[in-house]
Amino acid sequence: MMSLDVVCSKCGSVIYTMRMLKSIKDALRATNNRCPVCGAALNPADFSVTASKL
Ligand SMILES: [Zn+2]
């Protein structure tokens, strides 16, 4: 099983963890295109996604 952490490139916080492969846009929609930690409005290019095996 894999999980994907979506990381805010502004503050480095993990703002969303995907348990299944979804598009980054779906992940952003869940957070209103904002980082809930630092409040930055972000677009998909501003995020990095790191995959880790559980
Ligand atoms: Zn942030």
Describe the structure.
This protein is mainly beta and 54 residues long. It has one domain (2-53). It contains one helix and three strands. It has a three-stranded antiparallel sheet with strand order 2-1-3, with no helix packed on it. The longest helix has 7 residues, at 24-30. It starts with a strand and ends with a strand. The model has no long low-confidence stretch (mean pLDDT 79). Zinc ion (ZN) binds next to loops. Zinc ion (ZN) is lined by residues 8, 10-11, 13, 35, 37-38, 40.
Radius of gyration: 10 Å
Question: Which stretches of 5+ consecutive residues score pLDDT under 50?
Answer: none
**Mean pLDDT, as a whole number?**
79
Total number of β-strand segments? Answer: 3
End-to-end Cα distance, whole Å, is 6 Å
Can you count the helices? 1
Query: What characteristic shape results from the CA principal axes?
Result: globular
The proportion of strand residues reads 35-45%
Q: Which keywords apply here?
A:
13% helix, mainly beta, 1 helix, three-stranded antiparallel β-sheet, globular, 54 residues
